[in-house]
Hints:
By secondary structure, the protein is α/β, with parallel strands linked by helices. Helices cover 55% and strands 17% of the residues.
Amino acid sequence: MERRLTAILAADVVGYSRLMGADEVGTLAHLKRLRAEVIEPKVTELHGRIVGSAGDSLLVEFASAVYAVQCAVEAQEGLAAHNASLPEDRRMTFRMGVNLGDVIAQDDTIYGDGVNIAARLEKLAEPGGVCVASNVYEQVKGKLDYAYANLGSHQVHNIVEPVCAYLVSRAKTDSVFSARDTLTLPEKPSIAVLPFDNMSGDPEQGYFADGIVEEIITALSRTRWLFVIARNSSFTYKGRAVDIKQVGRELGVRYVLEGSVRKAATRVRITGQLIDATTGAHLWADRFDGGLEDVFDLQEEVTRSVVGAIAPKLEQAEIERAKRKPTEHLDAYDYYLRGIASLHQLTRESTANALQLFYKAIELDPEFASAYGMAAWCAVMRKANGWMTDLKQETAETKRLALKAVDLGRDDAIALSRAGNALAFVVGDNNSGAAFIDRALALNPNLASAWLFSGWVRADLGDTETSLRHLATAMRMSPVDPLMFDMQNAVAVSHLFAGRFEEASTWAERSLREKPDYLGSLRYAAASYAHAGRTEDAQKVVSRMLALDPGQRVSNLADVMPTSRPADMALLAEGLRKAGLPE
């Protein structure tokens, strides 16, 4: 028995059982030919020694980590060239892993954790790929013209300590694009979704991963304020270790979404991260878990969750970028972004400022449908908070802006949903508002704010169960939304109109924890408490309402509330009377 430090290469055929099941004799002959013509000559050339060859696997030792990695990469290139002329169902693809470790040599083979880790690294590699341990990376970096992608640490089977792994690929000698071909960033925020890495060891999951990416690209493309790189361009990076900044330059995008898929037994985990390609900064990351028995449902859920999460992040990042832009160089889109940032402050002054910024955007671009929609939506905030000074004039202007938004933005979900909400809440045309919001959701079912507005309009139309479903979708898609208080308030309203006063009170309390001085939430909270028999709580809320706006009265509810059904308005008025609001 002898111990020595050695570099170990483990290789294994992908989908060997499937190949054997289809053609046992042909598969064995094919494997023998590949070993004789491609793998063994390369092992000999780079001073390696085959120490194990059970079935479809291969174990090779080298005295040098450099030779081991070089052998793996060049053997994979030789195998890829051999496969290129074969039909896809007859191709034989290998995974390879390389580790540097202390081994026990006995009976012309090697044993020990060093060998086991090499085998586990092989499982982490993509079909046709090479994965190496961090100790190998430290030995070969700078000595081979290869690129390395850090996969992080992995807890592998029967190994106590986590293993840090790197994917290896042949470094590009020249970029496909020269410096003069570097693309200018579009005026709109731009994003590329790269193919997700299949980390599961199951080639079938590669198709699932590709399907998710295609769904995400399609969903993002429905967001008109985004510039989204087409699938065919994004997929040119499939199977390559990439530099995100270089991807940004080559595709001319500011943001890149990348991710991975990993299968374990009957479960699958998808991770994603959003990166600013101009700086390399990570803006967002999350993971999603589900069962393989519902792969299509899971794919839809991941798509909705990813798009619902990154769209606000992109908007937030763009707002921050616009804030840093010199004021004298603003254009229409930057005025629009600044208007959104100001609107999110949710004060009387910031809402008035946002409206002026949207008007400036419209002045520079009279066809800017989303700017019209956001300008109309400013009136929703002004009416809900009692900030309107000339109700008749502001209602007429809101109607003009909303109708202009839906006329210009027939395929713009933001314009349609904001304008629809304004028509319903401010103008009182709930049916038209609902129709425009429905059109927005048909165009972009991943727009959380549209689900919120739909929830409000459905509650005001008396369809409380549909309202609650749509509001649940909005909250699931955007769990840290600045408008969460409004989502919770809308849930309270739906329960109130359905006669579930305790549930209404609970949701009203949640809304007030998020936004204690929002008059819209205070009104519904007071009515919910009163109908639930919590008179003292209801009276405290009314006192806060009157402190914020002494002009609040039961008689002027119609000026600030969108409720279209007389029975719902009567229920609300009765509750506020019980709570002590003056007539």
